[in-house]
Design a protein that fits this description.
This protein has 323 residues and is mostly beta strands. The protein contains three helices and 19 strands.
Length: 323
Amino acid sequence: MRNRRPRRLNPDRGAGRLAEPPGAGESFCSGMPHLTVLRPGPLRPAPSLLLLAAAFGSCQGRAPDPPFPASDTGGGTTPSLEVLAGSWSGLLWPEASTEPLVIALGYDESGQPVEAWLGDGASWLPETSELEASLDPGGSASILLQPLLPGAPALELRGPLGPEGLPGGWFRLETAEAPPVEGVFELQPTGPGFFSVGEHLAGRWSGFLDPAEAHRRPSVLTLDADGGIPDGRFGEKAADEDLSEPGLVSFADADLGRVEDFCVWLEDGTHLRCDFLLVDPAGEWLQGDGWQEQFGAFQLTLARVPEASLDGAAGSGGSAAGR
């Protein structure tokens, strides 16, 4: 049995995203760029297990190893929380899981958190949450993200604060529908315009679409450097060749790695909308959530497929690596 991630409980995830299915007569893609309807055709085979293993295997085992040493302050005083000012991005590695959660945080000039986003779709914003950073006398920093809405997830990050900030430590994620999840995290400062489509999104991705009430479906996605989608498959729903128009995929926040929501028309005339996607600073993990008429609410977890794996799969006739 696989280790299931805690699901998003926060019903208010910000403007422009769907918390519920649209009402009668509404389109899932109202106000979104209109994409070419995918033409019916023979379904391509699902990604091979070899390719999926290559994608996930390349990113596994990279979690930081606790315990984290105390930060070296060079014999000076313990840094203040102000070293956290700006944008940070990285990964949460839950215990006993090979799939991390992408995380992004923004701090004001005093080092207090003002926003936080998680790859499963959860978010903590001033209007819906209490966000606080504190520093104990021993130099350990704690970042507490506490929701105001009942049942929404709460997250705490704790670790030694150093001149470089808070690059690693331990986390605890609490939800109303599952036991608390604990593990370690790794973060790095990003900054204005750190993320770009060409560097962090372009390439081949492979993983799973995870509906709330059904089994996982293997999924693959290829992104162009200009934001087009030349190839993709979500479960049994295959993409056509006409989604490569530039600008389909872009960043809503290039400081934190948040991808703008986008909508895809599928071959059967239904829509698949990615309401939220978050990429890690190394460009190895892409996560988010969305909605589709058949699947309902879903989470999407994709790992970058290394070029070497693509070359090997293509050489052995692997259909998932390309056409």
